[in-house]
Amino acid sequence: MDQNELKKMAGRKAAEFVHDDMILGLGTGSTVRYMVEAVAERVKNESLHITGVATSRRTRDQAEKLGIHMKSVDEVPYIDVTIDGADEIDKNFQGIKGGGAAHTMEKIVATASNQNIWIVDESKIVDQLGRFPLPTEVIPYGSTKVFQRLADEGLHPRFRLNEDGTRVTTHSKNYVIDLHMKQIQHPHLLQDWLIRQVGIVEQGLFLDLVNKVVVGTQDGPKVLDAHR
Ligand SMILES: O=C(CO)[C@H](O)[C@H](O)COP(=O)(O)O
Prior knowledge:
By secondary structure, the protein is α/β, with parallel strands linked by helices. The protein has six helices and 14 strands. The protein has helices at about 5-15, 30-45, 55-65, 105-110, 145-150, 185-195, and strands at about 25, 50-55, 70, 80-85, 90, 95, 115-120, 135-140, 155-160, 175-180, 200-205, 205, 210-215, 220-225. A seven-stranded mixed sheet has the order 3-2-1-4-7-13-14. Strands 9-10-8-11 form a four-stranded antiparallel sheet, covered by helices on one side. Strands 5-6-12 form a three-stranded antiparallel sheet, with no helix packed on it. Strand 1, helix 2 and strand 2 (about 50-55) form a beta-alpha-beta unit. It is globular and about 55 Å long. The two termini are about 30 Å apart. The chain binds ribulose-5-phosphate. The site of ribulose-5-phosphate has 18 residues, from helix 2 and helix 4.
């Protein structure tokens, strides 16, 4: 099976964790697209009452088109479960997200959720975080100063660019600076340093957040429990 089939497997398996009357956070990315399709099928076939909360315009548009009732994160009192993709997950269930530049909205929804489930293909499970460049979201004003500070700290920053060479901007019109560190030895220390830097809105380390990981593997879907 190729990577897309493994993503589909994980996305469809995770849709089984959805119940009637849930407020459901919907993440962002190609794996999430499969999950949203599967949830929409269940909503239709089983007449489930689900309220979706999206982490990006892309996901909200897809879910609405497929008939899932949507609200914004500010309109719901809490979220029961959020199902989202990830770019890397280590053996301690710590992760990197933000490959789709939606990590700030994803973290807002994740931290408003009682449970978080991640859906990945098996290539995302790693021994150590950091091979995937760590995304940060940075306010454009003064972003060259932030960039310089990240470079001085030895974090190998690069502005994320579109194909035409312009800078990628997030939903909130901020820039994305990716940190090409190759390995992250101390994720909590790095997170603590990054969130203290003025101009950085959010960064893509998602630590101590996930409860379950659904992995698409060549041997079928595997559900890993983080016991938190
Ligand atoms: O964090 C994300 C978007 O900001 C995605 O969840 C992550 O990039 C995984 O995407 P995909 O399922 O397409 O591999």
